[in-house]
Design a protein that fits this description.
By secondary structure, this protein is an all-alpha fold. The chain contains 6 helices and no strands. Helix 1 packs antiparallel against helix 6, helix 2 runs antiparallel to helix 6 and helix 5 packs antiparallel against helix 6.
Length: 150
Amino acid sequence: MMNQIIVKSKALNKLIKRNIRTEPTKTLVLACQLLLLTLLSGCGSPGGTKIDDDSFFKLESDVAAVVNSPVADAAPLEIKFIKEKLQLAKKAKADRKRKLEAQYTAQIYADIEVAKLRATLNRKNNELLDKRDQVSAAQVYLLELQERLQ
């Protein structure tokens, strides 16, 4: 009897996976579209970001806030890029290259948005996997109840 439940459970999992695959695909497509829009918005004119004396310190505090948030765990690669670009922006500030500093600042803010989107995507994916597990467990329980009724 237990073998039948396991076999039916595996067959049911295949059916559920087939039906659930469309949802992660939709989520992934949406995330990719948002990523593309974010990247394109960061590719504006180089003079688009205004740089003054306090802008670098604000940038540093914004980066520190993201690095110390749960986003850092969800998007470690993006955080690495942000830190590298922050060092480049710091060097550009020291060299008094305002245009280059503005470009790095815009890229860093775009990368922060990408990291936040990555964290959101990971959270949604985990929620989806939890729902799939719940549905699978419920189906197995339903099969067990049906077998007891027979």
